[in-house]
Write a structure and sequence with these properties.
It contains 11 helices and 8 strands. By secondary structure, the chain is α/β, with parallel strands linked by helices. It binds 2-phosphoglycolic acid.
Length: about 250
């Protein structure tokens, strides 16, 4: 019902030369993957990556998109610009954007709307900080982030959106949420979506990834959980063999 989706988030890594090297190795390694495979790459790598993965099972993603169609927004990228390069997915609201670049639930929502309006598929990131987890407000934070991101988004768009649950304390730290914790927290997100839309939509249409130090060692345990529909992979997506092993978590 919910096809697993494993997406790499390269963040600010890989020059064009490095992109060529990584994808040359990755393409044959993942060619028979059962999961949907995506690489979300820096803007400067999009054209190269797009050319290289044409005709393969790897899909192209970007790491952000602006909400305006065009105009005086120095340093930003529009949905049209990404569409022209055949980008299919776009990460929105990553915790690094929220933490370092002033992203809020409101701007996440604006970006999601702009992406959908142009036929891009958002990967919307949500997740609590360590402080919030220790303060016992995980549910409150996630409900606020999810309600904010999905404000005025129509039910018909749900199959074009992926949610990534990324506990901030697990990103790039080597600390993974236990599979059970990740599963239980993702259940809170799915439940929130059920309340916002409907039980059936949340159950059948909403794919929710786990992200945060996911790697070849923990991927199969995480992916075996009922609620987890995929992964958003940072560090381990920078090495072809590691990423391919996450993609083929069940092999
Ligand atoms: P990580 O990053 O796998 O390096 O923890 C995940 C992410 O930030 O998307």
């Amino acid at each position: 019902m919910r096809r697993p989706i494993i997406a790499g988030n390269w963040k600010m890594n890989n020059t064009i030369a490095a992109t060529k090297a990584l994808l040359t190795d990755l393409i044959p390694l993942v060619k028979d993957a059962e999961a949907e495979v995506v690489v979300c790459v820096p803007y400067t790598d999009i054209a190269t990556a797009g050319e290289m993965i044409k005709g393969t099972n790897i899909k192209l993603g970007a790491e952000n998109v602006h909400w305006a169609e065009k105009g005086a927004f120095t340093g930003e990228i529009s949905a049209d610009m990404l569409k022209e390069l055949d980008v299919e997915y776009v990460i929105i609201g990553h915790s690094e954007r929220r933490q370092y670049f002033g992203e809020t639930d409101e701007t996440v929502n604006m970006r999601v709307k702009a992406a959908l309006a142009k036929g891009l598929k958002p990967i919307i990131c949500v997740g609590e900080t360590l402080e919030e987890r220790e303060g016992g407000i995980v549910e409150k934070v996630l409900v606020r982030q999810v309600e904010g991101a999905f404000k005025d988004i129509d039910k018909s768009e749900l199959e074009n959106i992926v949610i990534a649950y990324e506990p901030v304390w697990a990103i790039g730290t080597g600390k993974t949420a236990t599979a059970q914790d990740a599963n239980d927290t993702i259940a809170i997100i799915r439940n929130t979506m059920a309340k916002l839309y409907c039980e059936k939509c949340a159950e059948e249409k909403v794919r929710i990834q786990y992200g945060g130090s996911m790697n070849p060692k923990n991927a199969s345990e995480l992916m075996a959980m009922e609620q987890i529909d995929g992964g958003l992979i940072g560090g381990a997506s920078l090495k072809a063999v590691d990423f391919s092993q996450v993609v083929k978590y069940n092999k």
